[in-house]
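We modelled the chain as a single entity of 321 amino acids. Its sequence is:
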Amino acid sequence: MEKMNIRSLLYLFVSLISCIATASSNSGLSSHYYDRICPEALPTIKRVVEDALAQEQRMGASLLRLHFHDCFVNGCDGSILLDQTPTIDSEKNAAPNANSARGFEVIDKIKDEVDKVCGRPVVSCADILAVAARDSVVALGGPSWKVRLGRRDSTTASQSAANANIPAPSMNLPALIKNFEDQGLDEEDLVVLSGAHTLGFAQCRNFRDRIYNETNIDPAFVSHLQTICPQVGGDSRLAPLDPTPNSFDVKYFSSLASKKGLLSSDQALLDGGETAELVLKYSGDAEEFWEDFAESMIKMGDIKPLTGNRGEIRNDCRKVN
């Protein structure tokens, strides 16, 4: 009888540990973080994101990109949201973000609404970015996933780190692989997360060199793009990253297979064995892309979060407390 009791206790203990491990990641984050302290937080973020996308569908890609650009610079800590001050070297002014990163007003609106329903600032700006990215993907027809939460906000930013760490549209495949490896992400993550370019647009300045100087590109596609993007001027003119820029689908991958990748860094995925195989696989398998995208987004969201007593919960996402 005593043996049975010990066994039962051991079973309960193992089950409890298993549940805790499932709910929390190695990073100390948990998908249930706000369940008790503010159960209305996530529904509020979803509502504001959906309202923003109802006004402008392109905003979904912009919010997804903000989370990506945040995580690649010293971890997912909301540093991209900080404005320039005498002591803050704002990442908004870094080359990949200047006159390009957008959606900051939507994040401000989310923060205001969430703090109202929670009664005080308990939801970090870094978590808002992570949830808004997921909700944007879902609103545009893509997969959902359980976002791990409990990040805190940075009290610093680094323009130089943003310039160094955010992948450039001109990068070749070895540079991209190294860039992702530096963040703890592998070649599959590289291809899967590049698939976020199934949404949104790019500026002429980011694809001009490709359409005037590269040869691994469909001639008719080049002719069309040259009507949008002249050799001189028109830097901010937009072209869609795939044929359906407001729909989360696999046309990004089928475009690469047809040599119609808009950015050099996109088309470069076909230059390697493993990455090329993944591109071709996803071009014909939306279900697998969805599943892998969700997994890679969770993995990216785990990059160096601030937890415990590190960082703070900002009262205003644009400035430190």
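As a brief sanity check on the tokenised model: The first strand starts at residue 201 and ends at 203. The radius of gyration is 21 Å.
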